Amino acid sequence: MADLTETTPGWLAPEELESARARMPVLYVDAVPVRVDDRGEVTHVGLLLRIGPDGAVSRALVSGRVLHHERVRDALLRHLEKDLGPVALPRVPASPQPFTIAEYFPTHGITPYHDPRQHAVSLAYVVPVAGDCRPRQDALDFVWFTPQEAASAVVQQEMPGGHGHLLKQALAHVGYVAS
Amino acid sequence: MADLTETTPGWLAPEELESARARMPVLYVDAVPVRVDDRGEVTHVGLLLRIGPDGAVSRALVSGRVLHHERVRDALLRHLEKDLGPVALPRVPASPQPFTIAEYFPTHGITPYHDPRQHAVSLAYVVPVAGDCRPRQDALDFVWFTPQEAASAVVQQEMPGGHGHLLKQALAHVGYVAS
Amino acid sequence: MADLTETTPGWLAPEELESARARMPVLYVDAVPVRVDDRGEVTHVGLLLRIGPDGAVSRALVSGRVLHHERVRDALLRHLEKDLGPVALPRVPASPQPFTIAEYFPTHGITPYHDPRQHAVSLAYVVPVAGDCRPRQDALDFVWFTPQEAASAVVQQEMPGGHGHLLKQALAHVGYVAS
Amino acid sequence: MADLTETTPGWLAPEELESARARMPVLYVDAVPVRVDDRGEVTHVGLLLRIGPDGAVSRALVSGRVLHHERVRDALLRHLEKDLGPVALPRVPASPQPFTIAEYFPTHGITPYHDPRQHAVSLAYVVPVAGDCRPRQDALDFVWFTPQEAASAVVQQEMPGGHGHLLKQALAHVGYVAS
């Protein structure tokens, strides 16, 4: 769950963000980018390849904070564009109902989700993406996997913080379950 | 809920359909065609203008039977193409989870849904439509309404059998409620 | 959306809450208390009768903040017990998926939801309540309405901030739509 | 997916059921019985132990046909009582929205769901069960498993026809994913 410290007026300064994170849950969105065929069936799932602050290589969903006075669907679009580039053509769902919520705790073991920096609650959406995806920001690459590959142990172990778990929940929601 | 008696081998002959309809619930799909903006927010709802067997003018959602050995998403696509034409470019949702189910009974008053011909249970989906819609078959016209217009008393009273009710449920699902 | 300023260590002091509210969206839960019959069908909706800081009488859903390091389902239980008393026996849903999210803005007109104090994003759940409800805290009374009564103009106009809207979305989700 | 041939007037005679099954999809309900704690969190999943027509031992969800002129929630209650006995106290969800639909085909490989007898489309619900469960009918036993046990390879391989898959989808819906 990467997010930059935005510097636009009205947003949180780094030390304020730090302080708020210690006091109240931070609202996030998680997007699972997918390719769908003409019938709407998911054929691929897209994952970001990242290098974390500790140098560890990992794969991640598109994820980030909802800002003050920002609509949830605008936050989704902003993070999708930030991570996938300006011509990814994401199709944010018509309904605001997330397929699940993910509760990230700084303490391990409360839920499958973990974020050492903060208590974050994320609204999770499956987002079909129709255009070209070009990773930006801190991502090295963006790779499409079949649902089978995405649910495999190899990919799952590269997804820390519970993102592998959330990916499997998204796959179950669209009708795919790893055997 | 119009459907033609299909004549492909393996499908029901008219008298068989009649017989089956009297004995078990018939599986349907209902699609609420919508226009969405770049953020995925619904801006318009599309309704078919129909003349019923009794000559009455009415507005309807896209609706029809699921055939033997047909996937639900294929039934959705088939009825959308049948009613909106071949270049409507419907985006059937990635998840098979309907936003609700509508239980149509031949008897009035059991549910808000009524179909004099049969007991039908319909899986209902909101389907963004990106292309040109040209009504075919038995529809006279296909008209886009704003959510406010679609939920208005004028339009609602033109939607028999509970389709006005189902439309309002769809609007509530995407965040719009008539005041 | 009432909430007390909790004084447990680690929670926000009043001035800190004020500051955080001005900088980031605050995570809320909204619960729609319902009575269901043996078949699970909603027969009644429960609403709190409140007197606001300005003396205005209003009806409200159960609503409140999610605290730092608190699970969403614990926040739901805490606010339900706070508002309905200790023997209400609420049945928090097994799935964390809310039926919708409500985005409350301090500015009017962005969404149907409004909260003059803050930008709050609320996860909304329908919660069957099996026991006795005794309003506590700042509520004068807690009254059960039929779905028809709850969706009526009389009750709707007593529900400020978009709670009437959210109630109608909840009713649509459980299959009821006002005609 | 067991169902008896009911003999009440208006229902299908065995040969008619056979005929209808060859011509149109049959509407089913699948219920995943769960135990929940006071916070609504799923602690156990209940599975029927069955001996199939071929003598094979298997575990199954509660499953069966929706009858002509029967409400979906009544079909759920009827099959839950038939399989779990009269004092199971199932809490059928307030919303008719299933967490997914399962499309059972007589042909293997179209979906993860398979029923050699017919094309069936099932509405799937998670149903908290509060009372005592006493298997009736053709079930030998009814056993509660933790989510971890239920998702294990041992239990999964005892669930034919895709019920293991559907169980995992239900677990994902309530926030549990097998690692």
UniProtKB/TrEMBL annotation, chains A, B, C, D:
InterPro entries: DUF4916 (IPR032582), NUDIX_hydrolase-like_dom_sf (IPR015797). It comes from Streptomyces synnematoformans. The keyword Oxidoreductase does not apply. This is NUDIX hydrolase family protein. Pfam families: DUF4916. It comes from the Bacteria. GO terms for molecular function: hydrolase activity. Keywords: Hydrolase.
